[in-house]
Amino acid sequence: MDWGMENRMSQLLQSDGRCFFLPIDHGYFQGPTTCLEKPGETIKPLLPYCDAIFVTRGVLRSAVPPACSKPVILRVSGGTSIVGKDLGDERITTSMEEILRLNATAVGVSIFVGSDYERETLLNLTSIVNECERYGIPVMAVTAVGKELEKRDARYLALSCRIAAELGARVVKTYWCENFEKVVNGCPVPVVMAGGPRCETEREVFEFVHDGIARGAVGLNLGRNVWQNRHPVAMMQALRAIIHENVGVDEADDIYRRVSREK
């Protein structure tokens, strides 16, 4: 691996091989998402506990302080909205020049395997991989499913993740599911878990995160289940302990409750 690529990967995956990414890119298709209306205010107390932020160029410029030392994963696909016909009809939205200008550590692009726009989004991935590899910038593929939540099973996600890796993604972000080891074992690059819709309880989040890590995920890319929580800092600390300290569900729950009381 080239030095630049290896250096950037080491910023994403910490010395223990794990990672906790904080996504705040939801507005690119959802608009002013609840609790993310003012993203700068939302993320300020959370930044100390994440390993990188996943963000669009607009929010990066307007809401993230330039002195922030956290690595930036730049969202570079889009072009659709939640009120449009099909979320899968995405294109590459950001030039290579812009990626370099913004000093991105990595970029993220969605793929929609099995959708009407499968081919287009897979070619989006390959085109950005081709460009980013020239400059030593890792690409994270996001195995999105749009509104079709029933697709989140091991067989489908394993297919999507393997295709993303085959096309050159250095990291793959995908949803947790039952039999998650089938997804991880079939993917030759690191797999990071996404959160998906907000869970009903904190413990439910801790359980799927702990299970996913135990089954081979290297980390987490979790947004709504953190910053829509009543106590987002407590949530960040509890999840970070699962990822980087190997604590169990009960201990994570204790951390959450303790920090919540302190705040």
Record the strand order, biggest sheet: 1-2-3-6-7-8-9-10
Largest sheet: 8 strands, parallel, barrel
Q: State the secondary-structure class.
A: alpha/beta
List the helices and strands in order.
HEHHEHEEEHEHEHEHEHEHHH
Q: List unreliable stretches of 5+ residues.
A: none
**End-to-end CA span:** 44 Å
CATH topology (fold) name: TIM Barrel
Indicate the CATH architecture. Alpha-Beta Barrel
CATH class designation: Alpha Beta
- The CATH superfamily appears as Aldolase class I
**What is the number of beta strands?**
10
* Proportion of residues in helical segments: 40-55%
Proportion of strand residues: 15-25%
Q: Averaging pLDDT over every residue, what do you get? A: 94
State the domain count: 1
Rg calc: 17 Å
Number of helices: 12
Overall geometry comes to globular
Structure description:
The chain has 263 residues and is α/β, with parallel strands linked by helices. It has one domain: Aldolase class I (TIM Barrel), CATH 3.20.20. The chain is built from 12 helices and 10 strands. It has helices at 3-12, 27-30, 39-43, 57-63, 96-101, 118-134, 154-166, 180-185, 202-214, 224-227, 232-245, 249-262, and strands at 19-23, 52-55, 72-75, 77-78, 91-92, 106-111, 139-143, 171-175, 191-194, 219-221. The strands form 2 sheets. Strands 1-2-3-6-7-8-9-10 form an 8-stranded parallel beta barrel, surrounded by 6 helices. Strand 2 (52-55), helix 4 (57-63) and strand 3 (72-75) form a beta-alpha-beta unit. Helix 9 runs parallel beside helix 11 and helix 11 packs antiparallel against helix 12. The relative contact order is 0.13.
